[in-house]
Amino acid sequence: MNLESNQVTVNKSATELVAFLSDVKNFEQLMPDNISKFEVIRENAFVFALKGMPEIALEIKESLPPNKVVLGAISDKLPFTLTAAIDEVNEQTSNTQLHFEGEFNAMMAMMVKGPISKFLETLSSNLAKL
Description:
Blueprint: E1 2-4, E2 8-10, H1 14-22, H2 27-30, E3 35-42, E4 45-50, E5 56-64, E6 68-73, E7 80-88, E8 94-102, H3 106-128
Antiparallel strand pairs: 1-8, 2-8, 3-4, 4-5, 5-6, 6-7, 7-8
């Protein structure tokens, strides 16, 4: 299953945005209001939970300044990646789009598509507010 957020403009250069997204503690600022847990578990990993949803642990799999940061699920139960594709507009701003790629059976994909789409849009709109 592949999902994409809308592209948003962020008031940070591409290099600054990659640095921001490569620091996992910064993801707490991007989370939706209905977050029930956020905890940094390692220098490059965090766990979060939204109300009514199971905990999800993510780690930074790849950071390629100035254009990409890839996070991936730590658990093999729900294998997926979340990629921030970043394009620099000028020295103060960049455009970014989030890409979700997961391997789910058809039933699971149906159940998670709506919540994940909403989650991606929340993350991207919170990025635009930085």
